[in-house]
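Q: Okay, next protein. This is Chaperone protein HtpG from Hufsiella ginkgonis. I've checked the sequence twice, so it should be correct. Can you predict the 3D structure?
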Amino acid sequence: MQEKGSISIHTENIFPIIKKFLYSDHEIFLRELVSNAVDATQKLKRLSSLGEFNGEQGDTKIRVSFSEADGTITISDRGIGMTADEIKKYINQIAFSGATEFVEKYKDKGDDKQIIGHFGLGFYSAFMVSSKVEIKSLSFKEGSEAVRWECDGSTEFEITSTEKEERGSEVILHIADDSKEFLDKARLEGILKKYCRFLPVEIEFEGEVINDPNPIWTKSPSELTDEDYKKFYQDLYPFSEEPLFWIHLNVDYPFNLTGVLYFPKLKNDFEFQRSKIQLYSRQVFITDEVKDVVPEFLMLLHGVIDSPDIPLNVSRSFLQSDSNVKKINTHITKKVADKLAELYNKDEKAFEEKWDDIGLFVKYGMISNDKFYDKAKDFCLYKNTDGEYFTLDKYKEHIQVNQQDKNETLVALYASDVKKQDSFIQSAKKKGYDVLELSHPLDSHFIQMLESKVEKFTLKRVDSDTAEKLIEKEHTLESTLTKEEEEALKEVFDKAVNNKDRRVSFEPMPADELPVTVTLPEFMRRMKDMQALGGGGMQFMGNMPEMLNVAVNANHPLAKKILAEGDESVKIDLAKQAYDLALLSQGMLTGSDLTNFIRRSVDITVG
């Protein structure tokens, strides 16, 4: 038998398009050809189960081999094979998908999920790396004749009879000069492990099976132990710490979705390790760019998602957004929220122990996703400076009596740096106030979000004002200074501070509080915090002077001492010393001002 003809195509320049544009990543030729071999093998198994193939299946491994000397790569399978007519139909008519036709034919006879092929163009990715491609095939049908198809990348092909003993197909690529890099064991093995690591049929390369045909996401959770999940995680991420916990996804309506998502230990690094979730379609690796399938805040997770219902472009390289993608996105968000709620409700103490690792993730989700917020608000924890944890409702109850201002708004105080702000924390605690620890740059956005959603509730950083004014009450302390004394004292402090951007005021505080307190107003602090995290529109803050409030404790003994001092320069020195001490407590005293403060302190001590 011998036949020559032209491949049926609609565009004469189809091969240059395939080679240069359709598949931007040349290494995927191996993924496509091995996937086709898997399809052929799965079809045979399907026909056998339906009673349409009664022979022995035997060894169904797919074998990949190469010869550097011959310049060839060969992909062999023992699937259904093809007749000459089928080759003409499926190979010569570009974009006619054999898998699609097969699924359509057998769609009413059971599960078709194991048929990978979608587009019919996958085979032609071979021409990205080949100067010539051969197919040798023997159909499973009785009495079939083995055939050989050959094409050099033009629109011409040749079909002839050939010798082939075993059922199945053999695709032989004669590698082009500009693609000799693929005639390398390590290179081929790397590609196979990247794309074919979990294909459902055993793949043998250089005498070794390189894939796991039954990864854990294809199994029922009831079949698996914690050790199985941990081992799979270590296989995916060999040098990572053990995950905190995981979610096994298994949905068949209204879309198909399986997978396992892991919660890694994040701590406070806020590192967006975006290429940690792998997307598969029927166990074929597609991409680790899953931003359209997974909400952005879940990009912090690790693991695998597998769905045949995620729409891909013809090269399977890019996701295409549609209603299924949105449904999957929503479903994954719900599953993650439900899992976290389950863990919290099951064992609050164990959940608290994990909070430092997952808190950042939960807060990021609440900021960026309203549906996640609605669920997470019931298990999001708030840690105070004493190491106690509360949900928001429990915390509001905890501070209800003492931290309600004169407008009946609850005021939660927080520290962004517990060590640096210790004196302010101690002052707040003296008044019976509780202080939260919100120390991550993301917390500035989290605070803004909370205040927009929770009525009659606000947060103030503990060093944003004096303890007396953090929570405005109906009744306040009385000043021991007269108006004339305040005016005289203000003149002294204005000279000591000597900065038009520092606003000096006198406030009645307990006598045992610091004589002077320097604070940055809450709104200014928030603007700066958000700018530090890259908050849009906040860049102008970097050019603004730091408008500090200098609050002089009207009831501190130092006030009377300064007023009683007869020497003007000594008055200013005393005021300057108290002011510098306040700056030092905020980490704002630097350079020559710090040096002068130390010298002055030594003089006072010696004197």
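A: Here is a summary of the prediction. DSSP finds 18 helices and 22 strands in the chain. Residues 323-346 form the longest helix (24 residues).
Q: Noted. On to the next one.
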